[in-house]
Amino acid sequence: MAKKIGFLVNSDRCIGCHACELACKNEYQQEPEIRWRKVYPLKEDSFGGFAREFASLACNHCEDPACLKACPVIAYTKREDGIVMHSKERCIGCKNCMLACPYKVPEFNQKTKKVEKCHMCAARQDRGEKPACVVGCPMEAITIINVNDTIAGAERSLPGFPNAAITNPTTRFIKPVVGRQVRRDA
Amino acid sequence: MMGEWALVLFTVLSQMAAGAFVSLWVLDTVKGNMKEATGTFVSQGVVLAMGLGLLASLGHLGHPLEAYRASAHFGTSWLSREVVLFGLFFFLSVVYYWQWRTGGARHLVGISGSIVALMAVPTSGMVYVLAAIPAWNNFGPVLFFLLTAVTLGPLYAAVLLTIKQYSLGKSLFQFVIAALFCSFMSFALYLSLLISAGDVTALTGWNTMLSITFWLRLFIGWIAPLGILGYVLAQQQWHISRYMILAFALVLIGELLGRELFYGSAVALTMFGL
């Protein structure tokens, strides 16, 4: 089976430091209001106990991308390896992809009057480098995986994430373990 | 969703033009006694409304001068299909107007334009049938866009025909009353379905109900024109012309308010409740 890459987001490791967001912004010199990657706080009682947990998400590079279907100018394409690319040259700024994406990924750049989004650092990956967010995370909470592989503990969704059946995102999650107690015996 | 004025104007004007085109073609085909000057005037009005609608639609784009490329994804994008069909409808409207003006054969253009208009309006609605916005992911957008066309279109044609002293029977207004009543009832049903659905769908319903725009739309776009048209048609000696422009203006304002509400009240799926 051909390699299909996706993000593995480990919420058990994520501490919500936003370093991934900054690494992405720094790499692509984004406008202040644009964030291709966002760190979301999870609902505190989602995992049994009460805890502050986070999920860092960018484009989910869906198997069945709603943005690609909705775009009237074919600005979106899906590569062999699964990365959903957006062409700024083709985009006319109609924002139809922004309406269609269930994950609110495409963002409108007021300066260029075009939409933009994460492309999983495709050029870096083609050079054999890791994406900026993966490199920038101090907790190693984001990794690139082959979604066809079986990853222990990886799930397709987290509580509060829109229904994965809509577009079949390639992002996989590792849930946080809440209520873990460290006991020091005398 | 502020700043959607371009889409509000485009959708309402294009649906009005589509409805008016079909009304003109039906009247011409069924009654067959229309003077060429009258038909020319009405078809000119259709071209004007559709032209203004297309012009307004450019206001939504980041790069309006590249709008011509929006037909490229006809195979999967409803927006591309909408662009192609309304572009074709505009072209056929211009040809129809020209045929009226020059006295050329217009039956084929009339029927072709009507078919394209009847395809373009639901296609426009399908652009908004999106899983990401549960309140739109149903029959709503297509039905409401069609209802705008069948209420506003005939009234627009009727205003233009009355200006040219064309005598209209009661049937057109009875049709508009029935369409307005359907529009009101179906919206009430839609709203109750939204509110009972839960989550972001219910939020859309409450956003609608609690908006002043909804109550203005209710009184201006449904109750007032239904009252006026009902009162006039109930008279033994009816003189619709003096009330025609008022009824049209009320329905037009109601539809514009309703469309603003459509775009402004919709709540998309949230990411982790945010």
From TrEMBL, chain A:
Keywords: 4Fe-4S, Iron, Iron-sulfur, Metal-binding. GO terms for molecular function: 4 iron, 4 sulfur cluster binding; metal ion binding. Residues 5-33, 82-111 form the 4Fe-4S ferredoxin-type domain. It comes from the Bacteria. CDD domains: DMSOR_beta_like. SUPFAM superfamilies: 4Fe-4S ferredoxins. InterPro entries: 4Fe4S_Fe-S-bd, 4Fe4S_Fe_S_CS, ET_IronSulfur_Cluster-Binding. This is 4Fe-4S ferredoxin, iron-sulpur binding domain-containing protein.
Automatic annotation (TrEMBL), chain B:
GO terms for molecular function: dimethyl sulfoxide reductase activity. One of its GO terms (cellular component) is plasma membrane. The keyword Metal-binding does not apply. Coiled coil: none annotated. The keyword Mitochondrion does not apply. GO terms for biological process: anaerobic electron transport chain. The chain crosses the membrane at residues 6-27, 39-58, 78-98, 110-136, 142-163, 175-195, 215-234, 246-272. Keywords: Membrane, Transmembrane, Transmembrane helix. InterPro entries: DmsC. This is DMSO reductase anchor subunit (DmsC). It comes from Pelosinus fermentans JBW45.
